[in-house]
């Protein structure tokens, strides 16, 4: 079994403690990785702090070239990275609607190159006879990146590239469920980066607490659950660290009356079930007008029954397993609660036979707000479909949730959809799509879905501090 090392100061680091990594398609370990303790984590932070001085002094164009090189090494090692992603996450190579390991690796390279081309020019706020005011963007220092298990390479890229481009150095800690691809990517990146600029460690909660409280960490960027985000915010508060928190979502999708379901439902299905529903901005609650409710339920259930679920390494697999046993237990609990609360399971609703953490794609009817499956994020292949009677009612239902990451409106009439979109209390609204993030569009949540944004120029700015320089001319000497 191959053991993957940590990366500190440009060198692979083996530690006495190793942790096995489970392939969720088999329930068995396929690799292991070294584990950091607090002492090793201190070394990584120290290396990043030492590298910051020289890295931050490079020109923006020099850092752009380095970030492009990271994108290039991801591209050059795409087959290996795809294999690792498939083994540690369970997602197929291709996947439902092409959302699989190939998309994750290709998307990571694309994102790296796009972000690398962003500029941070000095902004001139005033330039007249009374003076000149310039706004400069300056790097923060060492950034701690803490990433989740659902998109381990893509989200690592989202965190790392803008941080480096802005002149920061990074210590990244991937999820203990999926550390392998991230460790390998950082190893590859260190073949082109100066030592200490990008470091990768693993570890338990004590290591995580060190990253979020250490005085040499200037910013924490975290993607994951809302409860963990609250703990990070509390830990970071003592030193007033900058934070970007992309937390849980329970996104609502609204189908307006009269929408062509033959066209909408296949697209909606992909937005709900890609990556087995294990995406923060997947569509997780579908609201359909009562006049089309039964047709929507029938259509979504019929589609779910056709999906091939299996090992992601097998050709033709559309959905893999739930990534870990703990998440599978949450899915099972929510479906059981739905049945107790009067929900009707139209398809699925059970684990599939065999090894691994497989669960059948599940569609549930007959529930509304107040039911656990509607109110709580399942983060699995389960969709509740809820009937509504008026637009006023459905906006109230969609917004009646602590989460506020994304939402969507589905309609033939784009003007009607646009009029409704602005009434949704969430960070991003899609019309006739859902969860389609892109590198030029800021992305972040409201309410309990986090704070700050990622992507594009706005996301890059969050990796910097502002410095205003106000220039006033001296009065001329008296003659």
Strand residue percentage: 15-25%
Number of helical runs? Answer: 15
- How many beta-strand runs? 23
Secondary-structure content class: alpha/beta
**What overall form do the CA principal axes indicate?**
globular
Low-confidence stretches: none
Question: How much helical structure, as a percent, in the residues?
Answer: 25-40%
Strand ordering within the main sheet: 15-16-17-14-13-19-20
Mean pLDDT, all residues: 97
Provide the CATH superfamily of the largest domain. Aldehyde Dehydrogenase, Chain A, domain 1
The top-level CATH class of the largest domain is: Alpha Beta
The largest pleated sheet is described as:
7 strands, mixed
Question: Distance between the terminal alpha carbons, to the nearest Å?
Answer: 85 Å
* CATH topology (level 3) name of the largest domain: Aldehyde Dehydrogenase, Chain A, domain 1
Instruction: Compute the number of structural domains.
Output: 2
Radius of gyration over alpha carbons?
24 Å
Write structural notes for this entry.
This protein is of the alpha/beta class. It has two domains: 3-247 and 449-468, Aldehyde Dehydrogenase, Chain A, domain 1 (3-Layer(aba) Sandwich); 251-431, Aldehyde Dehydrogenase, Chain A, domain 2. 37% of the residues lie in helices and 23% in strands. It is built from 15 helices and 23 strands. It has helices at residues 38-57, 60-76, 78-89, 101-116, 152-165, 180-189, 205-213, 226-237, 261-273, 293-305, 325-340, 372-375, 391-399, 414-421, 456-461, and strands at 3-4, 6-8, 11-13, 18-23, 28-34, 123-128, 131-139, 142-146, 169-173, 198-200, 217-223, 242-246, 251-255, 283-289, 344-347, 362-365, 382-388, 403-404, 406-410, 428-431, 446-447, 450-451, 464-471. The strands form six sheets. It has a seven-stranded mixed beta sheet, with helices on both faces. α2 packs antiparallel against α4 (101-116), α3 runs antiparallel to α6 (180-189) and α4 runs parallel beside α5. The protein is globular, with a radius of gyration of 24 Å. The N and C termini lie far apart (85 Å).
